[in-house]
Amino acid sequence: MGPLIEVVLGGLMAGVLYSLVALGFVLIYKASGVFNFAQGAMVLFAALAFARFSEKMPMPVAFVLAMGVMVLMAWLVERLVLRSLVNQEGIILFLATFGITYFIEGLGQLIFGSDIYPIDLGLPKEPKIILEDTFQGGILINIDDLLAAAVAGALVLSLALFFQKTGTGRALRAVADDHQAAQSVGIPLNRIWVIVWSVSGFVALVAGIVWGSKLGVQFSLALVALKAIPVVILGGFTSVPGAIVGGLIIGVGEKLAEVYLGPIIGGGLENWFAYGLALVFLMVRPEGLFGERHIDRV
Amino acid sequence: MSDARAIGEVILAVESISLAFGGVQALSNISFDVREHEIRAIIGPNGAGKSSMLNVINGVYHPQQGTIHFKGEKRHRMEPHKVASQGVARTFQNIALFKGMSVLDNLMTGRNLMMKTGILSQALYWGATQREELKHRERVEEIIDFLEIQSIRKTPVGRLPYGLQKRVELGRALAAEPTLLLLDEPMAGMNVEEKQDMCRFVLDVNEEFGTTIVLIEHDMGVVMDISDRVVVLDYGKKIGDGVPDEVRSNQAVIDAYLGVQH
Question: Does residue A95 form part of some domain?
């Protein structure tokens, strides 16, 4: 029993990290109908900013400053890119985010450098052994993993409430649905876009810090974000809780597959398992586990 | 009927509006006014520029020439959300509702402009925000009763039949408590019964709330019955303006609709 639980726990922790990135995708998709390919680049940029700032100043100040940088970025993205693309097809906006991706990746490394930078949150790194009496050998867990899980949980809860219960949340959903109609009821499209990119910038910053403290801040952070794509396919593009559940399923799934199926069909399963699962979901349930079902009257 | 509402001063004055898309002249030199509390219809054959006119009033299009005075103030180049904040609400020819959201949520977006609490306090869902939400919800429920759509309150709009969607769209516009309501073909594609319902709602809105209404409509019977004054457009030009009887007997209007022998 012990090893199985350890594998599942490890998977859950990895899953939480995927979820954090997936959350950023879902937010922008929910609030503007755009699949934001740049989310990974934003995670990298935010993490770089935080890592470099925290070399020179206390961590809370660095956090606030990095957040300021992300808000500035949101404002620039709206001003320079999105504003000219109001009422365009989703695919046009999607391609625009490709451009944004490469620009942000380049800019981030230009400003902050392209080495590997550590983020030390001052948490105990050595794993703890718990439940030694129940299982033989006990179970290994990491404190920072638990903290990441708590942060993700809090984020999801507050964002879900924000979207469902408040006027601004409703305005965000309205913009995602129909630009023109949203404007006609007096919703200022431009401000909404700045808000939503700022919020997803915030999520990117949190994700970047959590990832960065585990792996170090480096270019590969931008690629980790690609793992979040199967997560949103699984959970549904429009569902905040879906991003979490999807992340957990993929995290646990790929670890279990690696450990129990790996020896049978060969290793490296962990790298493609998520994409395989996403493919199956696209065929069976394209709107994901929690996504809004698309209804068209014929 | 029109006596009860006491038609007032000019609330919207459109002066010498010209609008072109590249080489296509959509509107040329259009002037007309709308008085407080009246129902003003814009009619004309397809492609006459009726929707373009509405889009100009609404701020979606910016005309190359001409001015618009609203409530006595000259209006400068303005975006739709700004126009909305001045008290202008509208519906669209091809329904533009938030399809994934419930009827209730759609109507609540109409109250968006009136929500005072800031984003931060909304994010935290503080007491004030909660009270405000309830207050708006109350008003929205009144509109739901008024439009007799109680039973579909929680239904996602995308699932509703066409006629009901049109009604919900009217509801969303009403939720903003507009002084000027723009309706782009509110009865298009409806059967006789649905049209009668819609006529009743439009008249009731006008009478009970005193809302000024500008509407585009193709059904001549409806237009002549409910409107106080009618503007007729053809190929982007104004060819008639007056009370329904005047317009009905205007030779240029008859020609535009029936065609002329050359």
Answer: yes
